[in-house]
Amino acid sequence: MKKWSIVLPAVLLVAAVFLVTGEELRRTAETLLLRVEKDGNAPLRATGTVEMQTVRIASKLSGTIEKLFAAEGAHLSTGAPVARLSRPDLEAQVQRDEAALAKARALLEDLLEGTRPEELAQTLAGVDAAQSRFDKAKSDYDRFERLHKEQVIADKQFDEYRNALRVAQSDLASARERYALAVAGPRTKQIEAARHEVDLLGAALAASRSTLADTHIVSPVAGVVLAKGFEEGEYVLPGGVVAEVGRYEDCWIRLYIPSTLLGRISLGGSAEVRVDSFPGRVFPGIVSEIAQEAEFTPRMSLHPDERANLVFRVKVSVPNVDGALKSGMPADVIFP
Q1: Which helix (H) or strand (E) holds 290?
Q2: pLDDT of residue 298
Q3: What is the pLDDT of residues 33-75, one digit of tens each?
Q4: Which one, of 157, 169, 178, lies nearest residue 133 by Cα?
Q5: What pLDDT, on a 0 to 100 scale, did the predictor assign at position 297?
Q6: What is the helix, strand, coil percentage profile of the chain, to 5?
Q7: pLDDT tens-digit map of 266-295
Q8: C-alpha angle 278/279/281, rounded to 5°?
Q9: How far apart are CA 310 and CA 306, in angstroms?
Q10: Which of 54, 62, 84, 199 has a C-alpha 20 to 30 A away from that of 323?
Q11: Beta-carbon count within 10 A of 132 CB
Q12: What is the C-alpha to C-alpha distance for residues 243 and 13, in angstroms, rounded to an integer?
């Protein structure tokens, strides 16, 4: 009983607060609607928050952050360095692929040059030597063939000279084939295979260089650094967000307009934006987006109206070349 005696008054107090808050919101909404109904030319006023496109710059590779160039609040241009990773293994891989490609290119150039004159002379000398051995073996064979017919020498001795002639004839044929190949040079298929080897190693080198280039993390857009995800010396995994960059030029105000007042604005219509930081300055805006589907009235609805429980999300784009508007600023929007 004591527990309920403490809890029940607290519940009743919270309920009373919600009733009072709801009553105030209802009265505010009725006052706004009555003013709009009485004077159809009265401008529609709404309040929203400045937003800008945020780009998360993530690392494609894993590694230790060797150098961090971007500081929070710094302005970056497109392609500006953000961080550099330490990856000695990738540098060694590039050197290895460069050496392999240089070797393949040298072999291809050697094949395209054909047989060197020194090699031609060497093979030709081999033909001459084989020819001399053949001539001697042929002379010996002819002489001992007559003696064999006259039965002066035995069959076994004659077979030795006949085999020597066959060997000399085979050596001469081989020497002539080597000389013909030297004159013809490398085969077409051999040169083609060497070309493919160069292309293969060239592609491997390009891939290695591309991977090494990913150790230099740059900003893909121009903007201001909103936050850093890592510090120098920390280890980052692939996909780790190194920094968040806000594109201050791509700025807008997010509003929620009840359905009863949606007819007061149109896509492409003009608007005036004011912020507390610059009380005397008016930022021109354009209605760039009107949601096609309604949403339930959020807790922070700008026009709470019990007769219009649904609101439409509206986006008002504002030029922000000088970066005066910051993300999260409250802004008042007037639709003439």
Answers
A1: strand 278-290
A2: 52
A3: 434 444 456 788 898 999 998 999 999 999 999 999 988 888 8
A4: 169
A5: 53
A6: 45, 30, 25
A7: 899 999 999 988 988 999 999 998 888 777
A8: 65
A9: 9
A10: 84
A11: 12
A12: 46
Confidence of residue 195 (pLDDT cuts 50, 70, 90): very high
CB distance 248 to 323 below 8 Å: yes
> What's the confidence (pLDDT) of residue 34?
39
Name the residue with tokens 């009380």. 279
Q: What is the DSSP string of 29-66?
A: HHHHHHHHHH-TTSPEEEEEEEEEEEEEEE-SS-EEEE
Identity of the amino acid at 260: T
Task: Give the model confidence (pLDDT) of 89-98 as tens digits.
Answer: 999 999 999 9
Question: Judging by beta carbons within 10 Å of its beta carbon (0-12, 13-18, 19+), is residue 76 exposed, middle or buried?
Answer: buried
Q: Report the distance separating Cα 258 and Cα 46, nearest Å.
A: 11
Name the band, by pLDDT with cuts 50, 70 and 90, for residue 18.
very low
Contact in structure between 268 and 287 (CB atoms under 8 Å): yes
The architecture (CATH level 2) of 2-55+247-335 comes to: Beta Barrel (2.40)
Structural domain spans, the chain: 2-55+247-335
Local structure of 75: helix, strand or coil: strand
Q: H/E element holding 254?
A: strand 241-258
Q: Which two tokens stand for residue 89?
A: 């293994």
Res 302 pLDDT > 50 = no
CA distance 59 to 83: 9
CA 6 distance to own-chain centroid: 61
Reported for 238-242, long-range contacts at CB under 8 A and 24+ positions apart, including other chains, are: 238/59, 238/60, 238/61, 238/62, 239/58, 239/59, 240/58, 240/59, 241/56, 241/57, 241/58, 242/57, 242/58, 242/59, 242/65, 242/68, 242/70, 242/82, 242/83, 242/217
- pLDDT tens-digit map of 102-115: 999 999 988 887 76
Count CB atoms within 10 A of the CB of residue 118.
Answer: 8
CA distances from 249 to 95, 117, 285 (A): 42, 70, 13
Query: 269 in helix, strand or coil?
Result: coil
85, β-bridge pairs: 65
